[in-house]
Amino acid sequence: MLKLLLMGTAIYAMVCLALYIFQPRLVYFPMKPLAATPAAIGLDYEDVVLDAGEGASVHGWYLPVAEDARTVLFLHGNAGNISHRLDTLRLFHSMGLNVLIIDYSGFGQSDGRPGESQTYADARLAWQHLTGARGIAPARIVVFGRSLGAGVATWLATEETPGALVLESAFTSVPELARKYYPIFPVRWLARIRYDNASRLPTVRCPVLIVHSRDDEIVPFAHGEALYALAAEPKSFLEIRGDHNGGFMLSGQAYRSGLARFIAGLDAGGRLRASLASPRS
User: Fold this and answer.
1) What letters, b where the CB count within 10 A reaches 16 and e where it falls short, cover 61-96?
2) 29 φ, ψ to 5°?
3) Nearest 5 degrees, angle CA 247-CA 248-CA 254?
4) Is 230 helix (H, G, I), strand (E, B) or coil?
5) Which of 97, 99, 114 has its CA nearest to residue 38?
6) Distance (Å, whole) CA 171 – CA 148
7) Domain total for the chain?
């Protein structure tokens, strides 16, 4: 029995070590080849290549609608690349929004390797491109993060002051979400990748929209509710239906209308007009 106990303890310790060492492989699932471009769905776009230093670059697309339109900085989830987000780009375009979407380092045509601090650096490059090279006022930028991208978006909104922050299918933190998948392991101690939205969101000083589905099979609905409770006013909550990856499509017009209502409620200074805000929808 003692030998079995020692063997079990050793195996448990080895699994813990593996979870710690190989954590990035459990979080990031990048794909390099681009499946298509916005031209495949009839949208004009510009290739954007951002200098990340030391010969590396971050790649993205800028999809213009009009100079005076609001601009969405879209930060996607932990898998695939920007070419797998064409449905979202088409939706934003139909809403009259300019869009900049980037691939994190190691995704698509972006150089390097993904990591938490690296995704933050990539998002900062995108922000600087919009506010610097394109001269877009911060109050005219909506930072939009989906799933893991919500962690990147929340960080950016604590460093800068965008016109609004939209978090879709977001978790409170990686360690809290990991408890669902690895309940027998001390994930709070093992977590090197955190994306701690729960601690950062209360410090965000722009209007916040939380979007979540009760049917989300990856990030429980309770995470969205917890983030909404933590966000400072003004804030809104849009409940959608459908799974983690396809809820925005399955929800159709309800999703589009909810986003449009929130964005329409932003005034020229990026504040949310009370008359157009929707606390829960």
Assistant:
1) bbbbbeeeebbbbbbbbbebbbbbbbebbbbbbebe
2) -130, 70
3) 110
4) helix
5) 99
6) 8
7) 1
What are the Cα distances from residue 117, in Å, to 105, 168, 191? 11, 21, 14
Q: Say which residues have a Cβ less than 8 Å from residue 162's Cβ, sequence separation at least 6.
A: 73, 138, 139, 141, 142, 143, 156, 206, 270
Contact in structure between 136 and 163 (CB atoms under 8 Å): no
Alpha-carbon span 281 to 81, nearest angstrom = 30
Q: Which pTM does this prediction carry? A: 0.92
| Helix pair 148-159, 116-128: axis angle to 10 deg | 60
Q: Is residue 278 part of a domain?
A: no
CATH code of the domain containing 244: 3.40.50.1820
pLDDT in tens, 111-148: 999 999 999 999 999 999 999 999 999 999 999 999 99
- Token code pair at residue 183: 């309940």
Q: What is the pLDDT of residues 50-81, one digit of tens each?
A: 999 989 999 999 999 998 999 999 999 999 99
